[in-house]
Amino acid sequence: MSGRESATAYAPASVGNVAVGFDILGFSVDALGDTVTVRRGSAAGVTILASRGAVSDLPLDPARNTAGRALLAMQEALALPFGFEVEIDKGIPLASGLGGSAASAAAAVAAANALLDTPCPMVELLQFAMQGEAVASGSRHADNVAPSLYGGLVLTVGIDEPRVKQIPVPAGIRAVIVHPHMFLSTREARAILKTGVGLSDFVWQTANLAGFLSGCYTNDIELIRASLEDVVIEPQRQSLIPGFAETRAAAMAAGA
C-alpha cells in the first residue's frame, strides 16, 4: 500500500510544435507551471473541488477539464477502487500558447500516481495526460504533455504506443519567448490546417526535422539554425498571430 492520501505535483509550461516538429517536438519552460493536488476520495470518479490562480473559471466537470479527463482515463484503465478529489492552481494563462492545458493534465496524473499502490511507468502517465489534452485541442498529441512530464526538449513518436526521447540541447542555446498578449486556443489554431501536404513540402520538412535533430546530437548550432524552417504548418498559421512575420525576421537578423 502506498499509504498516502494526498499528493501535490507541479508541471512546467511548454512550447509545442517546435520549429519543424509539429505535434511531436516540444520543450519545457520552467518559469511558469501548474500545480495540482490530488486526494483519495471515498466517492467514485473525479471531483474537482477548486480551480485557482491565472485561470479561475475552468470547467469543474471532470470530463470537460484536462486534469479531470486525464484522471478519469487513469481510473478507467486501472479500475481503481477509490475516487480522486482535485484542486488546480493555474500558473499558466489560458490559451497563451504555453501548454497550460497539458501542464494541468501532466501535474494531475503525476500527483495521482503517488497515491497508487503500484505506480504507473512514465509512458502510461503520458497516455493518460494525452487523453486530457484532447479535451482542449480535440486530438491526442504529446508535444506539450511530454515535455511537461519529462522536462527538457522531447521528441514523441506515436499516439497509441508513444515512444519518448529526450533530445540533448547544445550548450549555449537559449529560447526567447515573445508573447503578443493575445489568446488563441489550440483547437482554433488546429482548425485552419489543411490535411494534405505536397511532395516537395514533405521532403523539405522531413529534411529540416532530420537536420534539427542531427544538429542537437552533434552540437552543430549552424545546422540547427539552417533547419529551423517550417514549410508546412507555419505558413498556414502565421496570420493568426499579429506581428509574427516581423518578429521572426528580426530574431533571425539578430542571430537566432
Would you write up a description of this structure?
This protein is an alpha+beta fold. 38% of the residues lie in helices and 21% in strands. It has helices at residues 66-78, 100-113, 122-137, 145-150, 186-191, 199-218, 221-227, 234-237, 244-253; strands at residues 6-15, 25-41, 46-53, 83-90, 153-157, 163-167. The chain contains nine helices and six strands. The protein folds into two domains: 6-167, Ribosomal Protein S5, domain 2 (2-Layer Sandwich), CATH 3.30.230.10; 186-253, GHMP kinase, C-terminal domain (Alpha-Beta Plaits). Strands 1, 2, 3, 4, 5 and 6 form a six-stranded mixed β-sheet that branches. The mean pLDDT is 92.
Topology at a glance:
Elements (H helix, E strand, L loop, with lengths): L5 E10 L9 E17 L4 E8 L12 H13 L4 E8 L9 H14 L8 H16 L7 H6 L2 E5 L5 E5 L18 H6 L7 H20 L2 H7 L6 H4 L6 H10 L3
Parallel strand pairs: 3-4
Antiparallel strand pairs: 1-2, 2-4, 2-5, 5-6
Helix pairs in contact: 1-2, 1-3, 2-3, 6-7
Concise account of the structure shown:
This protein is α+β, with helices and mostly antiparallel strands. 38% of the residues lie in helices and 21% in strands. Strands 1, 2, 3, 4, 5 and 6 form a 6-stranded mixed β-sheet that branches.
**Count of DSSP-assigned helices:** 9
Secondary-structure element string: EEEHEHHHEEHHHHH
Mean pLDDT: 92
The radius of gyration computed from the alpha-carbon positions, rounded to a whole number of angstroms, is: 19 Å
Looking at the overall shape, the CATH architecture of the largest domain is 2-Layer Sandwich
* CATH class value of the largest domain: Alpha Beta
The separation of the N and C termini measures 51 Å
Determine the CATH topology of the largest domain. Answer: Ribosomal Protein S5, domain 2
Portion of residues in helices?
Answer: 25-40%
Please report the total strand number as a whole number: 6
- Uncertain residue segments: none
Number of domains: 2
**Which class of secondary structure composition applies to the elements?**
alpha+beta
Largest sheet: 6 strands, mixed
Globally, the shape reads globular
Strand residue content: 15-25%
